[in-house]
Design brief:
Low-confidence stretches: 12-16
Number of strands: 10
Helix content: 40-55%
Distance between the termini: 90 Å
Shape: extended
Length: 422
């Protein structure tokens, strides 16, 4: 149905039967049980006449309201007229069904779904609990700002293990027990930003479907402030690394190979967990990360930058059934074992993800070209990459030596040029 046809098929006379021939004075409003409504009659795509009512407070505004409905109908179709009854929960359910599910790939490329769909479902639940029954077209920028304030001020409650020593009544010896306890911490800005990013994406989805004419998040000043996020810059020292490896014994012996790969390749934890033997070439001394296991969905090549990373991988291959499709480490997470090793090593505020930060910082401190390091780590933006330019005790000792060497070379070169002239 073209625009001209839609215009012809729209009536506004409340007392007329749907017809294009009769013309009488228009009445843009209708009264039902004492309530006023703006009234628009239109013909849908099947040719059937329908009526759209919108609450009014004053008859004098009826004409303007009907004209607005007519423009919406002509520009965006019937779906927009009917969308004023869609609640946020209904939008959330439709969005989840259309977008939030496990990633589906073809030929190594993601064609639908999300790799982090579980986290997105968690964010979606928060949004549904807050906006729930509210009509999506009634959500204003002030509502979104109120949601942001509430989330930032709501602490996060986590469950932690508390270790206690108790005396065994039978043996008289002390033994360690673990008890669960609740702990609160401030909510991070980054967590709220992820929720707001999802909210923004949902409203854009609603616009594409014709349920909304504009996205209210675009009218919120500084909705998502990435600059306010606290960027982690924890880098493992070489002494801390030694202590961590000492703790990787017994049942935690498998951690050593995982940590060496993380510390010497800057691969992300998820990439390490999904690494298969078919990704590794011992002849070329490289790891080929395919798009289906990388965060950015772009393949990249990670060279064996150290002897120990090759030795660890070769040892694992020799001990394995040597099937190319098998996972290299055969694990989905090292959280429990890593936390135990970290505590025994006395490492505070160090997470497995910080190994990537450590590896990148070491590559830079070693004098590797920035562009080359970015290719290895999979960074596309220099702004993100520059977060890894940290001053560590090691780099603080090395940097002056590099500058001293450079200055001496430049001065010697200048003296040689002066001697040649004289």
């Amino acid at each position: 149905m073209n625009r001209n046809q839609k215009s012809k098929d729209v009536l506004t006379d409340a007392n007329e039967q749907p017809t294009e021939k009769k013309k009488r004075p228009n009445r843009y409003w209708k009264e039902i049980k004492g309530n006023l409504y703006a009234r628009l009659q239109y013909r849908d795509e099947t040719g059937k006449w329908k009526e759209k009512l919108k609450p009014l407070t004053d008859k004098r505004t009826a004409g303007r309201v009907v004209e607005e409905m007519r423009r919406e109908f002509e520009q965006h179709g019937e779906e927009t007229l009917l969308s004023d009854k869609i609640t946020f929960k209904q939008l959330a359910d439709k969005y989840e069904k259309a977008k939030i599910f496990a990633a589906e790939s073809k030929d190594g490329r993601k064609i639908a779904g999300m790799k982090s769909y579980k986290a997105q479902r968690s964010h979606l639940k928060v949004l549904k609990d807050y906006f729930g029954a509210q009509l999506i077209r009634s959500i204003k920028p002030s509502d979104i700002e109120a949601f942001k304030r509430k989330r930032l001020n709501a602490p996060v409650e986590i469950e932690i293990n508390v270790y206690k020593k108790v005396k065994d009544e039978e043996t008289g010896k002390e033994r360690k027990i673990v008890e669960k306890a609740k702990k609160q911490r401030p909510r991070k800005i980054a967590s709220v930003n992820r929720e707001l990013a999802l909210l923004r994406a949902m409203f854009y989805f609603a616009m594409r479907e014709g349920w909304m004419l504009q996205n209210p998040t675009t009218r919120v000043k500084s909705l998502i402030s990435l600059a306010a996020e606290e960027n982690r810059d924890r880098v493992l020292s070489f002494d801390e690394e030694r202590r961590l490896f000492v703790a990787c014994t017994g049942r935690r012996e498998h951690l050593r190979a995982v940590l060496i790969v993380a510390l010497d390749s800057a691969m992300r934890p998820e990439e390490i967990y999904k690494l298969r033997w078919e990704h590794i070439s011992f002849d070329e001394n490289v790891i080929y990360l395919t798009p289906d296991i990388t965060k950015t969905e772009k393949g990249r090549i990670v060279p064996f930058l150290t002897v120990r990373i090759k030795d660890e991988l070769e040892n694992l291959w020799n001990q394995s059934p040597q099937r190319s499709k098998d996972l290299v480490f055969g694990i989905k997470s090292i959280k429990t074992a890593f936390n135990t090793a970290r505590r025994e090593a006395g490492l505070d505020n160090f997470r497995f993800r910080d190994a990537r930060h450590t590896a990148t910082t070491r590559m830079i401190n070693a004098g590797m070209n920035y562009a080359e390091v970015m290719k290895i780590t999979g960074h596309d933006e220099m702004k993100t990459f520059l977060r890894y330019l940290n001053i560590t005790p090691e780099s603080a000792r090395i940097a002056p030596l590099k500058l001293e060497t450079y200055l001496n070379h430049a001065q010697n070169q200048l003296l040689n040029e002066i001697e040649l002239i004289n």
